[in-house]
Amino acid sequence: MNLLETAIEGNVFEVHIKYDDLRISRREVELTLGYMDAEIPPHFSGMIDDALLELKGRCEIKAGYRLTEVARPPGRYDGLLVGGNFLRMDKIVTSQLKKSERAAVFVCTIGSSMETWARGLMKDGDPAMGYIADTTASVAAEAVTNLLHDHIGERMLSQGMRITNRYSPGYCNWSVSEQHLLFSLLPKDFCGVTLSESALMSPIKSVSGVIGVGTLVRRKDYICDRCGVKDCTYRSKRPAATNQKTSHIETSGT
Questions:
Q1: Claim: this prediction has a pTM higher than 0.85
Q2: 129 phi and psi, to 5 degrees?
């Protein structure tokens, strides 16, 4: 899919994604809710339909990234220099990014409207619908991130380079506090996303992270059995036997 991209300053780009560009399947919502093999109850099934209908009018999608330099300081194995900032990363991440020549630092969001609606439902005594609305919003944020990731891959391929998996603070043993260093590499309030003192993103349904770029890197399966996040939403979508081999970890604030 060819998405429109706009350079806003230097190597910083906004990527224009519309709701109709998203590939959101009803089954993905069911999987995120934990219905892998069992049939979802009809009552909940109807709630998913309602949430998906609501989602279209509530998505306020913004996405973008900055291309910057990346390097491993001599003798250091506990992180990488990204845009001049030393980011402390576990070997799960550094092993995938160490051959990168550049890094794409990205952020994307679906805005706050869907999460506000979900909170309102819970406050008004409808926790089931609120939870399903919140889960649907998380699936939408993942779908936006998938599109952005693929777009960056296509852009880099046109320049003779490949990309890695994406990684974010808070996952793969990478401290969430590193968000502040990551966001310092982006324009202030980029894509309308801000950080709290505790490094939580607002809007909540946002995703940030880094993707390696280079001629010697490649995108491959995530290894969930090496990650310390046992309650990861996306790990829960796959059966345990699959998790240990090829399951995909999404890294987000969702």
A1: yes
A2: -65, -35
